[in-house]
Amino acid sequence: MNVAIAASSQLAADAGAAVAEAGGNAVDAAIAAALVSANTEPGVCALAGGGYVTIWPPDRPPETLDGQVRMPGAGLAPERLGGGAVAVDMAYGGGVTTLVDAGSVGVPGALAALETAWRRHGRIAWRQLFEPVTHVTQRGFPLPVACHHYLGYSAHPVFSRSPEGHAALHDDSGQLLPPGSPVVVPGLADSLALIGEEGAEAFYRGPLAEAMVAHVQARGGMLTHDDLANCQAIVRPALTLRVGDWQIATNPPPAVGGVMLAAMLLAAGWPLPAGADAGVTARLAAIQHWALDFRRTRLHGAQDTGPALTELLAGVQAHGKAALASPSTIHVSATDRAGLCCAVTLSAGYGSGLIPPGTGLWLNNCLGELELNSRGLVFGPPGTPVPSNMAPTCARHAGDGAALAIGSPGADRITTALFQVLLRFLGGQLPLAAAIAAPRLHLEYRDDRWQAAVEPGLDTRRLDLPVRAFDALSMFFGGVGATLRDAEGALVAAADPRRAGGTRVTSHG
């Protein structure tokens, strides 16, 4: 199958290409690449996390598979809830406080979403999707630069909480391994091989489930066998909108990321003027301000975001932008020659630091991501999803049949990064790779005021905001990856220069 793959590493893109060359389609390739990314970027992601998969077949409506991390504790007495977490402060990203250890571990839905995507759309055997990741984790994978950067802050307070984790990331003298050093996580390859042979059943109901529950509960956490056994991906119709000549499909409610992206795109007006002059920069900043302030004042900490999200979309569709006035993620995009698009975004938060002995599986700390979950460790009944910025997105041109898959890591910068790339590419200003590489701005709320973080190349003279200027393109602004089948049927893959991403376009068959 001819497939274009854009991933967070060349190792992951090559894994997707190997599966495509074995007969896999875009969904197969995206899953194989995502498995490699999630298991070879320690600290940045892990398989025992959550995520979303947006898929748009050429002959069917688009859908999003919801595998987000959820509240654990099914079957536990109330007095067993809310313990087992430890607060840590890190200087990462200008300073962050997060909760780690067993009490921060939520129910991991990522693998359920990947398996459901394969069952609904895949072409080759499940075990074949796991062959690349089993191979690279068994022989050892190079420690990525982005992971080393984050681990420089987090290796001691977070990822040394398990003996296996500390041993995998440090040398004999106890020093963090330098970038590029081979990493072997004990037990990880065996766990992945088992899942490849037996399916997600081994993870949610088999020996891996037993190991995860026993380890978390022994340290005071809330994960139970019922949580894992009942974990299923939810298939939802994707949130769709028309922007210019393109139809866009992204992550629907209750996730926040897709709605924020849709609101900004609808508010922008079309076509956006080309270039990076002061007027365009000010307009981008104003749209972000309206959208992000709505999120800060109406969504942050809300028990049920559904009504506010519905109100936001209805208002912006009716009134345009006036209505808006009221490290820890990986992404893979894949598009094949037939026009099948698949966008996968996964996250394990900042990481709990725990590996159940013998499994090699780092567990998430998504309950403890305070900037996303401000409601505390017990934020709802078991099964309640953790809020998410993730917005894996697909798009189709209404006239010429072009098909796009796109997404980004980057916490609250996911939606603003995708917004700017899509404006520049879908509006015809720039080709895909240039739109991804173009300078970005992101509005951030610090010290009770808004300010603009800005990369070089944007004219900020008309910004009525304090500016935090960056000296060069920075992975702070996301790491967009996109794949395209253009109007002539040619395949294109583009990765963000801000992050050491990888691309492949296969020509098999």
Taking pLDDT < 50 over at least 5 consecutive residues as the criterion, the unreliable ranges are: 319-326
Helix content: 25-40%
Number of DSSP-assigned strands: 20
CATH architecture classification: 4-Layer Sandwich
Number of helices: 15
Straight-line N-to-C gap: 6 Å
Count of individual domains: 1
Could you please say which CATH topology applies here? Answer: Glutamine Phosphoribosylpyrophosphate, subunit 1, domain 1
How would you sum up the global shape? globular
Major sheet attributes: 7 strands, antiparallel
Q: Average pLDDT value?
A: 90
Structural class: alpha+beta
For the largest beta sheet, what order do the strands appear in spatially?
8-3-2-12-11-1-20
What's the gyration radius in Å?
Answer: 21 Å
The portion of residues forming beta strands comes to 15-25%
CATH homology superfamily: Gamma-glutamyltranspeptidase, small (S) subunit
Quick one: CATH class? Answer: Alpha Beta
Description:
With 509 residues, the protein is an alpha+beta fold. The protein has one domain (1-509): Gamma-glutamyltranspeptidase, small (S) subunit (Glutamine Phosphoribosylpyrophosphate, subunit 1, domain 1). Helix content is 33%, strand content 19%. The protein is built from 15 helices and 20 strands. It has helices spanning 10-21, 26-40, 110-121, 126-139, 145-154, 163-169, 188-198, 201-204, 207-218, 225-229, 257-268, 278-299, 306-319, 414-426, 432-437, and strands spanning 3-7, 50-56, 63-67, 86-90, 96-100, 141-142, 182-183, 234-237, 239-243, 246-250, 329-336, 341-347, 393-397, 403-407, 441-446, 449-454, 467-469, 481-485, 491-495, 502-505. A seven-stranded antiparallel β-sheet has the order 8-3-2-12-11-1-20, with helices on one face. Strands 9-10-13-14-18-19 form a six-stranded antiparallel β-sheet. Strand 4 and strand 5 (96-100) form a beta hairpin. Helix 1 packs antiparallel against helix 2, helix 1 (10-21) runs antiparallel to helix 4 (126-139) and helix 11 (257-268) runs parallel beside helix 14. It is globular. The termini are close together. Mean pLDDT is 90; it is low at 319-326.
